[in-house]
């Protein structure tokens, strides 16, 4: 499959597609907003990794806070922190992405995670059976037959990218992983772009009605 065959959904089609996946748009956007909030809280005296690491942890938590009341569950596979749908057919992995996240596809320049994908996560994407039985053979050769066809478990990536005063994101399903990078995408759901305010407030689990000083607009 090449980039031209990838399904890209944006604008008015986003909310409907997320609803088909059992994922309310507001829940996804709350997790994305959290990334912006955590980056905004990072200042010069923080370690360089602070913004990205806290954004990862807190956005994963917020996504779970919103989805677990709907029957989703938290799930950890070999260090990959996942959020799993009620029927087990979808898992979501949150990651910071590269500069092409949230933008329509450019041949040869795919969106993807900012940092290389580890062995366990790659195996999870390439052979979803490991999400069923929890087993992982780190030494199995890539070309070695794996037996029965993998079950229909899809790993979606909630990728985010902070670009100055804007925050782009997408929820996308990968074709596979090779040498630490996404091979290509099967489906990309481009979420509404967020424009970051000057003084954001962090919404907590106990006060989910609190709104941050952030304006959400859809890309034209």
Summarize the structure.
The chain is 25% helix and 28% strand.
- Uncertain segments are 135-150, 202-218
Radius of gyration based on Cα positions: 17 Å
The secondary structure category is alpha+beta
Question: In DSSP terms, counting alpha (H) and pi (I) runs of 4 or more, how many helices?
Answer: 5
Number of strands: 9
State the order of secondary-structure elements, H for helix, E for strand: EHHHEEEHHEEEEE
Strand percentage, roughly? 25-35%
Mean pLDDT: 77
Tell me the distance between the termini: 28 Å
Classify the helix fraction into a percent range. Answer: 25-40%
Give the secondary structure arrangement, pairings included:
Layout (H helix, E strand, L loop, with lengths): L6 E3 L3 H8 L4 H17 L8 H18 L5 E5 L2 E5 L5 E7 L22 H8 L3 H4 L20 E10 L2 E13 L2 E10 L2 E4 L17 E4 L3
Helix pairs in contact: 2-3
Question: What does it look like?
Answer:
This protein is α+β, with helices and mostly antiparallel strands and 220 residues long. The chain is 25% helix and 28% strand. The chain is built from 5 helices and 9 strands, in the order E-H-H-H-E-E-E-H-H-E-E-E-E-E. Strands 1, 2, 3, 4, 5, 6, 7, 8 and 9 form a 9-stranded mixed sheet that branches. Strand 3 and strand 4 form a beta hairpin. The longest helix is centred in the first third of the chain and has 18 residues, at 50-67. The radius of gyration is 17 Å and the shape is globular. Residues 135-150 and 202-218 have low confidence and may be disordered.
């Amino acid at each position: 499959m090449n980039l031209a065959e990838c399904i890209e959904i944006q604008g008015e089609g986003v909310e409907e597609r997320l609803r088909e996946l059992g994922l309310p748009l507001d829940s996804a956007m709350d997790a994305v907003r959290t990334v912006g909030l955590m980056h905004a809280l990072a200042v010069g005296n923080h370690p360089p990794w602070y913004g990205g690491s806290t954004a990862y942890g807190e956005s994963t938590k917020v996504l779970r806070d919103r989805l677990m009341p709907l029957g989703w569950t938290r799930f950890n596979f070999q260090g990959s922190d996942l959020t799993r749908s009620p029927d087990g057919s979808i898992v979501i992995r949150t990651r910071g992405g590269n500069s092409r996240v949230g933008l329509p596809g450019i041949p040869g320049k795919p969106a993807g995670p900012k940092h290389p994908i580890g062995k366990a996560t790659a195996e999870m994407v390439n052979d979803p059976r490991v999400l069923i039985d929890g087993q992982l053979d780190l030494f199995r050769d890539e070309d070695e037959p794996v037996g029965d066809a993998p079950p229909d478990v899809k790993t979606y990536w909630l990728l985010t990218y902070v670009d100055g005063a804007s925050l782009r994101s997408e929820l996308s399903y990968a074709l596979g992983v090779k040498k630490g990078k996404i091979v290509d995408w099967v489906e990309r759901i481009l979420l509404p772009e967020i424009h970051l305010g000057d003084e954001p407030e962090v919404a907590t689990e106990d006060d989910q009605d609190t709104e941050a000083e952030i304006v959400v607009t859809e890309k034209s």
